[in-house]
Design a protein that fits this description.
This protein has helices at 27-37, 55-72, 80-86, and strands spanning 12-18, 38-49, 89-98, 102-109. The chain is of the alpha+beta class and 110 residues long. The longest helix has 18 residues, at 55-72.
Length: 110
């Protein structure tokens, strides 16, 4: 359960999450829990689908997401970087892997 990990605070030097925020119901809560188990000087590495900044791609993502959520549990309209910032992460690296919808995000607890 990503909302209640069975580890004490600041257990890990590195936390890796792949396709997490696009499949959980509460990405902010999941981000808080990952931050809790990461050491203050540690880092979190996310591989995530995010909502495109390009209007055409955004529209397609918004159209298909109700179907992908129903069939596969995936939401392609997450604003993951903004969510992480709101949850108190510093984001030193964001790398586009596929267009601007699949990103490698390196985050640090603040």
């Amino acid at each position: 359960n990503v909302y209640d990990l069975p580890f004490t605070d600041q257990t890990f030097d590195v936390v890796v999450a792949t396709f997490l925020c696009c499949v959980v119901d509460n990405p902010a809560r999941a981000a808080r829990e990952l931050k809790r188990v990461c050491k203050k000087e540690g880092k979190l590495i996310f591989l995530e689908y995010v909502l495109s900044k390009r209007s055409g791609r955004r529209l397609i993502q918004k159209i298909i997401t109700p179907y992908t959520r129903l069939l596969f549990g995936v939401d392609f309209t997450q604003e993951t970087i903004e969510t992480l910032k709101q949850e108190g992460y510093r984001i030193p690296l964001v790398e586009d892997l596929v267009a601007d919808i699949l990103k490698l995000i390196v985050a640090r607890p603040v």
